Amino acid sequence: MTFDPTTLSNFTLFGTAFAAAFIAALWLSLVIWTFRDIRSRARDPLARVLAILVVAVLFLPGVLVYLILRPARTLEEEYQRSLEEEALLQTIEEIPVCPGCSRHIEPDWIACPHCHTRLKKRCHQCGRLMELPWNLCPYCATPAPGARRENITMEEALQTLPNEAPADEPPSQPVAVEVDEPQAAETKPIEENPTESQEP
């Protein structure tokens, strides 16, 4: 069976053109894929340009080099990981610990059972727990005992004083205050000066 040289050359030309078109499409698709991939993994414009140039110049070896040097995670994955780390840190920070022994404590504990460190105090008005540095109860707005109060009027200060005397003590009686009457001023006669000059 003999083949026509013209037909064979046509098949060879067609196969060569198909291979060249396939390689060109593969090269272009790899460049586009590299651009999309590096855009999702890096914000640096220089890194994006270098990645595209490596793939465009070296072709398949350039893709291999890019796969080795590209960032391991995308920007979205880095963002999700940062959110998870922040949530984990916030959860750890929300767990109360004793300032004395750094052991876990409950929010409603007044003292640490391990090192006996005082953690909170009670409001003498409503009985709810307060932090030790607080000078004012946030629940009933009552100042803590011994706290300094500023910008207070006389009426507010008198309201905090007891109105009734204790039952076991007799009521205090008013004390009379004796007032001395003013004494009449003693007058003395004015003596004339004997050294005054006499009339001639």
Features of the shown structure:
disordered C terminus, mainly alpha, 200 residues, two-stranded antiparallel sheet, transmembrane helix
What would you say this structure looks like, in words?
- The protein has 200 residues and is mostly helical.
- Among the domains are: 19-77; 95-148, no CATH class.
- Helices cover 42% and strands 3% of the residues.
- The protein is built from five helices and two strands; from the N terminus they run H-H-H-H-E-E-H.
- It has helices at residues 5-39, 45-58, 60-69, 75-94, 154-159, and strands at residues 120-122, 129-131.
- Strands 1-2 form a two-stranded antiparallel sheet.
- A hairpin with a 6-residue loop joins strand 1 and strand 2 (129-131).
- Helix 1 runs antiparallel to helix 2 (45-58) and helix 2 runs antiparallel to helix 3 (60-69).
- The longest helix is centred in the N-terminal third of the chain and has 35 residues, at 5-39.
- The model is unreliable at 161-169 and 174-200 (pLDDT under 50).
Low-confidence stretches: 161-169, 174-200
Give the % helix. Answer: 40-55%
Binned strand content: under 5%
- From the N-terminal CA to the C-terminal CA, the straight-line distance is 187 Å
Largest sheet: 2 strands, antiparallel
- Strand order in space, largest sheet: 1-2
Give average pLDDT, whole number: 78
- Structural class, judged by helices and strands? mainly alpha
H/E series, N to C?
A: HHHHEEH
Cα-atom Rg, whole angstroms? 49 Å
Q: What overall geometry do the principal axes of the alpha carbons give?
A: rod-shaped
Strand tally is 2
